[in-house]
Design brief:
Layout: H1 12-19, E1 26-29, H2 36-44, E2 47-52, H3 55-66, H4 69-84, H5 92-99, H6 106-122, H7 126-142, E3 181-185, H8 188-191, E4 199-202, H9 211-214, H10 216-223, E5 229-230, E6 235-236, H11 249-262, E7 267-273, H12 280-287, E8 291-301, E9 310-311, E10 317-319, E11 325-335
Parallel strand pairs: 1-2, 1-4, 2-3, 4-7
Antiparallel strand pairs: 5-6, 7-11, 8-11, 9-10
Helix pairs in contact: 3-7, 3-10, 4-7, 5-6, 6-7
Amino acid sequence: MIKYLGSKRKLIKEVLRALGPAEGRTLLDLFSGTARVGHAAKKAGFSVVSNDQNTYAKTIAECYVVADAKVIADDATKILRELNSLKGKPGYFTERYSKASRYFHPKNGARIDAIRLRIDELDLEPTLKSVILTSLMEAADRVDSTCGVQMAYLKEWAKRAHKDLELRLPELVPNRPTAHYQAHQGDALEHVKALAADVTYLDPPYNQHSYLGNYHIWETLTLNDQPETYGIAQKRIDCKTRKSAFNSKRAFKDAFSSIVQYAPGNQLVVSFNNEGYLSTDELTQVLSTRGEVERFDIDYKRYVGAQIGVHNLKGEKVGQVSHLRNLEHIFVVKVNTPLRVPS
């Protein structure tokens, strides 16, 4: 899966342990991101309902949560073989992300352009298209020239940027006949009121940097809408207007409290970073309105971009790293109060 700030790649075992037994239960993953938790929960035996406000995240969830390996893998493999044989054809992607900026070497920018064009020409059914688009995102991620987020790119090409882009079949999971799988796209504050589950997993954004801003290229790659861009980072223009209450220090607590009150199921599991807007005491206070709260903490390295120091736009080091490790707090709430009935 793609490099992703806030990803639970190293914490999956702890999250699954917190979720508890899977048999006959449905998990709602309300901020699904790269669907690592949903993917792992599906493998563990949960029915999974994913949601995220970004198109690329919904696409990834269609791949890793909804797609049935038994049904799609053979067709996807044939399509990926064809796409891997395409020669580069420079277009919008090359101009914006290989020339106006330096996220991808021009040879790979041209390959991405050619492959993305062909994907639309194939007119695939939605879930199969999501698998192919996820493969393209992951292939591009393996040859990018960043420190893990798309707010900046390296001054010199990363070693991996010179490698040839190669599409691979994502790690699809067979669907269980007795389970159900869904991927939704929408605002969490609205979707939490409409989606049913036995356990709700919450991993919300926790600071001022939006995931759209951090991963704007994946949104553009998925939509293929060739948006107007701005700044050295060549961000999508709608990064300026698509805002979330969860990226606002002032609005976060009220938004999070609302999510907690409406969250379905008899159990809540919450992941939260020690760099987030709320302290552990504040989080416990909010969560305790729904039931008994248990917390455990996991120490881990910060993402690589936070370990190399603060640099200006010329690549010059202008600040020091404040700390190299973080704590991930995992809260488990045994719900003993009814959820608020949506008005």
